[in-house]
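quick one, two chains, predict together pls
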Amino acid sequence: MEALLQNQVIEAISVALGKVKESGELSIATIPSIFVEPPKRPEWGDFSSNVAMTLASQVRQSPLKVAGVLATGLRAQFPELFVRVDVAPPGFLNLTLHPIRWMQVLQTIQDNGSSFGVSSIGKGKRILLEFVSANPTGPLHVGHGRGAALGQAIATLLEAVGFTVSREYYINDAGRQLQLLGRSVYARYREHCGESSTFPEDGYHGDYIKTVAESVARTHGRALLDSPSDVAETRCAQLASQILLDRIKEDLVTFGVDFETWFSETSLHSKGLIQQALDELRQKGLLTQEEGAWWFRSSQFGDEKDRVVQKQDGSYTYLAADIAYHRQKLERGFDTLINIWGADHHGYIPRMEATVQAFGYAKETLRIVLVQMVSLLRGGEKVEMSKRAGEFVTLREVLEEVGSDAAKFFFLMRRADTHLDFDLELAKQQSSDNPVYYVQYAHARLASLFRVAQERQVNLPAIQDVEQTLLVQDEELGLIKTLSQYPFVVEVSATALEPHRLTFYLQELAAQLHAYYNKNRVLPSVESVGKTGDAGRSNELESNGKASELEQEHAYECIQPALTAARLALLRQVQTVICNGLTLLGISAPEKM
RNA sequence: GCGCCUGUAGCUCAGUGGAUAGAGCACUGGCCUCCGGAGCCAGGGGCCACAGGUUCAAAUCCUGUCAGGCGCACCA
């Protein structure tokens, strides 16, 4: 695989460099670290290195001269590895491998199968990933959907590169929002029972509140009317949040997003963890009392000012609960905490970073991914939403309309910190305009090819059993090189917490596949199946050199079994990588569409 | 006023300090006797917001300006 090829190239450069240093041809004091990367243009070769340019000032020679010396060394010392070593201004070293070297990529993919792309760079380090964490005061909307898709994809990616990830949902089941929910539901409940009611001014207006109130009425009859209103409201809050949380859980299951733990804010209060956390801060001298309130001295850790954690009336602020929650997370022994937050919470980051440091952990222990807003469009027209008036499109509605595969792909198509336009019509569309179908179709198309092959009694060969020298077209090498990038893409997507890199990669791979498949015949046509046999095969091997010309002119008649076999084996690996990539994103790789 | 994020093709956006900045959509014109046309090929489109700086090399890093979004509670 490429990591291997890439390392071989780096090793070769390093050897050549050492030799030049030894001979004194260039006066190199320290050998710099060497990087190679695939160049932007294929005609520049398979790998390029900027080592000559970084070395130039040190050895007081022009970059071109340095590159020239290295090129000569590489040509002489590694003739079996490189077919070409070029120097390009301003001092690039462009390296082209013998095509056959690339074939080991296909072998690696076949050997690893569904685990091609996984690695162990995470070294089993434990990560707690907290995401969604929507208040149980209403259904999930599209914004939560984006957070859910992103969190799930990040978790899967991190696991693929060797981290141990625990997914957690923090339930804000204490505090004012919940009180407000209780009052809203109680008002609707009274209405439902035919009693007078005053709906709270800043209450929740959505229709779902009525549904929840009716549900309460079904299970409790008119019993709550006998209680004092504050008791009834508290009861309503409990019942409603449970009903809504159950619904959130259902939606997440439908969406294919799962959590190991559901962490309740209430449990922080009931176990005295908030007081414990504040006591610890007090001991460290990070808590001061002023104007009757207790302040966390977060400004000592870069926050712009100190923050109140316990109010004059003795009650805790939301921050106090979050401090206790994050202390609790840290004490569970995770190496890194990752939080996925809506971008409107960004002002909160400095105080949480301060919290982590206050408890003696490095700032980098906490990583926060901000997710920007989603604008919902329908055929290019913006769908207006107002959470205040309860008019918003729920995640469930979106899933019912476009399906969870399309929803996930759209949510993961953009970098998290940019606004996302989500066009419902486009997501539903079954055409090339729709990137989800484009990628899935590539997979299904190959599955179909293999089905047809089987129907026609054409074997699906293993890569080691085919004539790999037949796969030397530019498009074939291009596909293989793209395949070889896959583990690297997975690694970067995971460590940068940026799944969109993988969606872009998959679109690119699908495009290459479609282009190749459109141009090149793989299976013999039905009529010719009977005619070609073992005789045809030996014949073909002798006239290897002319095969590509022939196949252009008489693609359907002249495709030889050895070429069919080689292409099938190649395409099998393409299918594996598409499948692996989609799976990491939580999207299905259909056999048929 | 202060802070964070974002300014790249008509639109939506990719872009790891490297060479001639890319893709999709839209637009124009082609390609199905055949493995799935849910596809492919070709074309036009750019002062990478602007101005400085660092560097052999800047869309990318730094500073400033402008524009848009968001946030600045003893709310959650």
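The radius of gyration of chain A is 31 Å.
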